[in-house]
Write a structure and sequence with these properties.
Helices cover 74% and strands 3% of the residues. By secondary structure, the protein is mostly helical.
């Protein structure tokens, strides 16, 4: 039983380890591997709670470990990536104090993520759903930006993602949407019942189609779809 109780915590620590790897790659501007390891960390994050519920070993320790791991994988890494994007927009090397300090505004994402994760642990409304965009979804959005910047066929997208003020606006919007009072359905599958997970299955199916047809550009689209689908579902329930 004691070994069973540690399996979810081990999966959570694998999330943290993936975040550490992603952090190193983000520092070295290897955005593809940073994206891969953040995605891997989110994969582990998806299943730690699932196994905790399946083995009936959920604990306050597991909850805290989950948030601490997410803080690195889905909080610090996106901040570093945005810092690198802002540096790229300003040009290397950067000269002058205003120019040198500007990229650090990318860590607004990290601050917003930290507040969101801390609030999640004490907000009793978020046991079966989310209030505000979950940090993993936000991390995938931010990590997709450099991949889109360096591999897309649209000049207006390249220009937008090469503008430091557009990147600052994205960072501010990111911090806001993480903590906005917008109810969003949970993406975590709690059991194998299709009826109880119909919304999640529909979302995941459409997400796959978006990724197949739009590739990396599909990630921002599926995040937007997630928010809109949640808003639509909430309005339908209130009628």
């Amino acid at each position: 039983m004691r070994i069973k109780a540690q399996i979810p915590n081990l999966i959570t620590l694998l999330n943290l380890l993936s975040g550490c790897f992603a952090l190193i790659f983000a520092f070295h501007q290897d955005f593809k591997f940073a994206f891969f390891f953040v995605s891997l960390g989110i994969f582990f994050d998806f299943f730690d709670g699932f196994f905790a519920r399946m083995f009936k070993v959920s604990s306050p320790l597991g909850l805290q470990l989950d948030s601490l791991a997410d803080m690195v994988t889905s909080g610090v890494v996106p901040g570093v990536v945005m810092y690198q994007l802002m540096n790229h927009a300003l040009g290397f090397p950067s000269f002058g104090w205003p120019t040198l300090l500007f990229p650090f505004l990318g860590f607004i994402i990290t601050l917003g993520s930290c507040y969101r994760l801390a609030n999640f642990n004490v907000d009793t409304r978020q046991t079966d759903s989310f209030i505000g965009l979950p940090t993993p979804a936000n991390a995938l959005f931010i990590l997709s930006l450099p991949l889109i910047l360096f591999d897309n066929q649209y000049e207006f997208i390249t220009k937008a993602l090469s503008n430091e003020y557009v990147l600052l606006a994205i960072s501010l919007l990111s911090a806001y949407i993480l903590n906005a009072e917008i109810p969003l359905f949970s993406l975590k599958v709690k059991n194998f019942s299709f009826a109880k997970n119909k919304l999640q299955i529909i979302f995941l199916s459409i997400s796959v189609l978006l990724l197949v047809f739009f590739k990396i550009l599909g990630i921002p689209l599926l995040i937007l779809f997630y928010i809109l689908l949640s808003v639509f579902t909430n309005k339908k329930k209130s009628i």
